[in-house]
Amino acid sequence: MKGEGDKILRANVRGIYTTALTKLLLENGFEIVNPSLAIKRRFGLHDNFAPPDLKIKDRYDLQGVRVLGTLKAVNNLYFILQSCLDDVITRRWLVSVDGVYRGNVVDSDEYGVYVDVGNGFIGRVPRSEITYANEKQLTVQVERKRIGAKQPILTTNLKIVGNYAILAQNSKVGVSLKIRDLHKRAELYALGKSLAPDGWGIIWRETSADQPKEILENEIKMLANKVSTLKEKMVSEGAPALLIEGLYFMDVEFPYFSKKCMDKLRTSAAPTLDGHHFYKSCGGKVSSALEMAERLLEEGEAKENVEKSLREQILYEFPEEDSVVDIEHVKLSGTVFHLGQATIEALNDKELKFKRIIRSDGFYDGIGVEKEAGDTALSETKLGEWHITTKYFSSDGELKGTYINLNTPVEVYPHAIRYVDLEVDVCIKPNGSVQVLDVEKLEKALENGFISKRLFETVKEKANIVAHQNFPSE
Question: So what's the pLDDT on residue 350?
Answer without folding.
Answer: 84
